Amino acid sequence: MPSVKSLGSNIPFQPTVHAIQQIRVNGFFSFGDNPNAAFVRNNFTWSDDVSWVKGKHDFRFGGVLERSRVDLNNLFFQPAEFSFPSLSAFLSGALGDYSGNLAFRQGAGEFKNDRGIFSGVYAQDSYKINRRLTVNLGLRYEPALPWREIKGRVEQFRLSGLMAGARSTQFPNAPPGVYFPGDPGVPENGVDSSWKDFAPRLGFAYDVFGDGKTSLRGGAGIFYDTRIPGIINNRFVDVTPFSPQLILSSAATAPAGKPGTLSDPLCRQSSTQSARGCASASNLFPASFPPPSNSTFSPNLLVVSWDPAHSYQVPTLYNWNLAIERQLPSNVLMRAAYAGSHGSHLKETIAFNVSPVSTTGVGTPRLNAIAGSNVFGTTNNGPTQDAQDINSFYHSLQLSAEKRMSHSLTILGSYTWSKSIDDLPNGGGVADIGADTVSARPWDDPLRHQFDRGPSDFDHTHRFVASYVWQLPGLSAANRMLRQVFGSWEFGGVVSAQTGRPFTILSGASGVNSSGTGIGQDRANLVNDPYGSGACVAAKITTKPCVDWLNPASFQTNPSGTFGNIGKGSIRLPGAFTWDMDVVKNFSFTERWKLQFRAEFFNAFNRANFMDDSASLTNFQKLSSTNNFGAIQQAADPRIGQLALKLFF
Fold this sequence. Notes:
This protein starts with 21 loop residues before the first strand and ends with a strand. It has an 18-stranded mixed beta sheet that branches. Strands 2-1-5-6-14 form a five-stranded mixed beta sheet. With 649 residues, the protein is mainly beta. The protein is built from eight helices and 31 strands. The relative contact order is 0.08. The longest helix is centred in the middle third of the chain and has 7 residues, at 231-237. A hairpin with a 3-residue loop joins β16 and β17 (332-351).
């Protein structure tokens, strides 16, 4: 297999296993592959449940203990990544990137040895107070235990330490504020366990009139998400000095590691330094483990941290509901319910390396200015931290009707009117640190959570779903031919309709940051009714099917020093309606041999459902005259039909 050295690249370190990680020419092509890696994932579970019925009580007890092991030996990033801004740059060998981001990256690999424990115990009692009332009481306990990296690949960032210029005693070459296990106050696993996670539950069922036809049910409980995602530990093991990475950017200035050429990416030769205007970058490889205390910390340093001020704050959901059901004649059951929930301590990523905002005075100086060097790179690099400070709220009215099987017909219909709101930044995630989108407002801005409050990404205000099954008579009195051809057909289907999901209009296709923070993409300004015609013409789409949805003239790029006035999730995509149908016929030849015929049709009426939940918003939501902003060119599947025969014997 070829390597980059086979192509004439004089990188100081080349792994034993030959591979080309990636060579990318922006706007033209990309090629490469990942070298071989070894993964070990083991999970051992012990659980037991006991039930005990005594008089009016139905007691249940139980518990679970899981031990997990994840070992990884991955040479990822060792063969290096190369990026070229254009085809001409590639032909000349000049590394760079049109947006000033990654131009060259090489790493020591990804290695981890994680051990995890999950445990929980519970006790509950279903107490039948009398013939009409039953009460359920329960309590669950689940401590939240962080993953343990048995070789200590963990770090912590403290802004106070950076401001004070205090360095690690374990790795003195690390920037001020970056600490490791063994330093005072740094937990062995990066964050302390949470031991206070008691989750009570309460529920009841009441026969209102005592005739078994009307019931009132309700309940409330606390639920903890104590399984800390293992993907978070992936971030810790990828950092210096455990797995150092050398990242060179075409926007960097000396001595920050501006890239050289394909043949000399680290500017080791004086001729390359002169031609490219870059200083020679330090070679960090091969990297030994355990790392020595005098390990080198490269420019553009990646730093990932738990919140140093708190033990792990477990994402918590408070859930409550109340429902009334009534049995009507003709086997019809009606149900009306209210369901609500509140989530707290949900995760977000905050970025510390933020520029001040000149017009508001909000913001902290870039960390590079505090540190007196450029070790943290640009603002979209630098230290990122897990902040468990996101809240969510959900309220819904749920109506349903069910006609149980009678006269060969079953129908089930449900309607939900709901609202889900959270203050998670647009594009943010809840299962990782540093790999998701952060808020456009600085982390210390008191208006940040208000700015990011809006409908959840999955919110659909109205949703209706109905299903049915209708079995035609078997014509048992008819002759064999009529029974086989016309008897026992079955018709079924699912009808669904919902309003569109929310999204947020961003200011510019290439990441406009008029606010000057440098940490996230600003939002556009709304100046008129957002919906209307003009998008297809503005995008110069003439050959492909195109539907106007947003009026580009109603949006403007946010002015300098502002974040944009469009609220998160304030714009909605079109709604969706589908009707799936099936027809089934069973032919019985003997008691043993049967043949089933099925005809299934999805989106039977071939309705165009634009921008459904699977559609990408990458360009659609970014205000720009060079993309398809506001012009719909994506739709869910058209009508699809399929036929099948199945033989039973």
